[in-house]
């Protein structure tokens, strides 16, 4: 599989007024075209830092991110991001439709096509009738569906998701996980999904990259060899799911105390 996204020797050091924080020490990995990869790691491991560098929202201190052969120096055209805080990522004074349409206007998509993309995206997240509502009239889960619709309407080749379901209830979360896999399979996007939830990573991913505590390196790049068709109850009660969950769990426990000296595994 050709790598669509390459992260090469990525480093990020933050300079605060009174201290220097080495957040990411050395990250190298590739994500293949059409892959769904999850990233897990302990709190403060640098997951958000990594995603911001990949999204071109933060300049790395060293190394580079290459998307479709081109180095990333700012937000790439063919990438969309879904953040955890849907409440802050949707504009409250715009309707759902207007929120979804905004990035399409910036991308200079023609008006008629914008209308089609907005309608298709709303349909695909099960909110075909909510286009005229304002975000604050919707539940948290529905707002996150709108954020997903906005990302999908943009037709990105890469979708980055930063703990997108951390703030919704368990039932909604399961539905949104299935929606993510369904859209990924149907639209053929490449998805990089950051989560602190090990079960979620194993359920969703084809691969799970386990990050160490900061300064961050990759502890393991685990292949999730579960069947492609996943279903909340059946997949989660598969003995292989339990094995993978236990394996990733023990890695994340080690990750909390993992520091330089030892060679990272890949
Ligand atoms: N703007 C900043 N200035 C200084 N230090 C920062 C800044 N942003 C992040 N850090 C530090 O970098 C490290 C990694 O933070 P980051 O938010 O990327 O981790 P994370 O894995 O996403 O954490 P969590 O799982 O808790 O959300 C932490 O030690 C954090 O305190």
Automatic annotation (TrEMBL):
| Pfam family name, one | ABC_tran
ABC transporter domain: from which residue to which, for each copy?
Answer: 5-246
The cross-references to InterPro entries, in alphabetical order and at most eight, read: AAA+_ATPase, ABC_transporter-like_ATP-bd, ABC_transporter-like_CS, ABC_transporter_ATP-bind, P-loop_NTPase
The protein's matches in Gene3D superfamilies, at most eight in alphabetical order, are given as: P-loop containing nucleotide triphosphate hydrolases (3.40.50.300)
Q: Which GO terms describe its molecular function?
A: ATP binding; ATP hydrolysis activity
Q: Which SUPFAM superfamilies match?
A: P-loop containing nucleoside triphosphate hydrolases
Tell me the SMART domains matching this sequence. Answer: AAA (SM00382)
Kindly state which keywords UniProt assigns to this record, in alphabetical order: ATP-binding, Nucleotide-binding, Transport
Name this polypeptide is given: ABC transporter ATP-binding protein
């Amino acid at each position: 599989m050709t790598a669509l996204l390459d992260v090469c020797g990525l480093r990020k050091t933050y300079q605060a007024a009174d201290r220097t924080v080495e957040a990411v020490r050395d990250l190298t990995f590739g994500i293949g075209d059409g892959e769904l990869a999850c990233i897990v790691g302990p709190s403060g491991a640098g997951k958000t830092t990594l995603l911001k560098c990949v999204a071109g929202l933060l300049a790395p201190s060293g190394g580079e991110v290459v998307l479709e052969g081109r180095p990333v120096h700012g937000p790439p055209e063919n990438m969309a991001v879904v953040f955890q805080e849907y409440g802050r990522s949707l504009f409250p004074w715009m309707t759902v439709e207007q929120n979804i349409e905004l990035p399409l206007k910036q991308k200079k998509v023609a008006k008629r096509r914008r209308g089609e993309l907005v309608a298709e995206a709303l349909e695909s997240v099960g909110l075909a009738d909510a286009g005229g509502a304002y975000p604050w009239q919707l539940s948290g889960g529905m707002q996150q569906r709108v954020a997903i619709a906005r990302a999908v309407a943009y037709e990105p080749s890469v979708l980055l998701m930063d703990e997108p379901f951390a703030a919704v209830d368990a039932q909604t979360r399961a539905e949104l996980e299935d929606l993510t896999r369904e859209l990924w399979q149907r639209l053929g996007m490449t998805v990089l999904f950051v989560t602190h939830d090990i079960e979620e990573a194993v359920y969703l991913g084809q691969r799970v990259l386990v990050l160490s505590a900061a300064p961050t390196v990759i502890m393991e790049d685990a292949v999730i060899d579960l069947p492609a068709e996943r279903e909340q109850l059946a997949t989660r009660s598969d003995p292989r799911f339990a094995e993978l969950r236990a394996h990733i769990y023990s890695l994340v426990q080690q990750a909390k105390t993992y520091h330089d000296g030892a060679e990272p595994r890949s």
